[in-house]
Amino acid sequence: MISPRGAGHHSQIGSGRVTSRPATLCCVNLDVESSGDYIEVYDGKDPISGTKILKIKCLENRSVSFNLTHGVYCDNGIYVGCSATDCEWSVFYHHIEVSPQHLDT
């Protein structure tokens, strides 16, 4: 059985890991100062081993919010990579708990 295990929120400037646990990504917010800045969201611990699931690009001095209505399941955690060190972002997610007796073998 897979079930939500509590809401999470993470805000940061620059690249970084959001969570290492399985989670459902619900919403991403981005604030940029320079035109063309973007973030990439990965299912994984980093951009090298992770799978890119979302890229958001924004115009100068703008904010954008991207809501994922049904969420995106990230089995390996969530990592956000930024094109610039001054990109400010927030991620909203739900941790997922997987019961071992319900896993396929």
Write a brief structural summary:
This protein is 0% helix and 65% strand.
Describe the structure.
By secondary structure, the protein is mainly β. Helices cover 0% and strands 65% of the residues. The chain has no helices and eight strands. The strands form two sheets. It has a four-stranded antiparallel beta sheet with strand order 1-8-3-6, with no helix packed on it. The chain has a four-stranded antiparallel beta sheet with strand order 2-7-4-5, with no helix packed on it. A hairpin with a 7-residue loop joins strand 4 (38-43) and strand 5. It is globular.
Strand content: over 45%
Oligomer: single chain
Helix content: under 10%
Order of helices and strands: EEEEEEEE
Extended strand count = 8
Low-confidence stretches: none
Largest sheet: 4 strands, antiparallel
How far apart are the first and last residues' alpha carbons, in Å?
A: 14 Å
Number of helices: 0
Give the overall pLDDT as a whole number: 84
Write the topology of this structure:
Blueprint: E1 2-13, E2 16-19, E3 23-32, E4 38-43, E5 51-57, E6 62-74, E7 78-82, E8 88-98
Antiparallel strand pairs: 1-8, 2-7, 3-6, 3-8, 4-5, 4-7
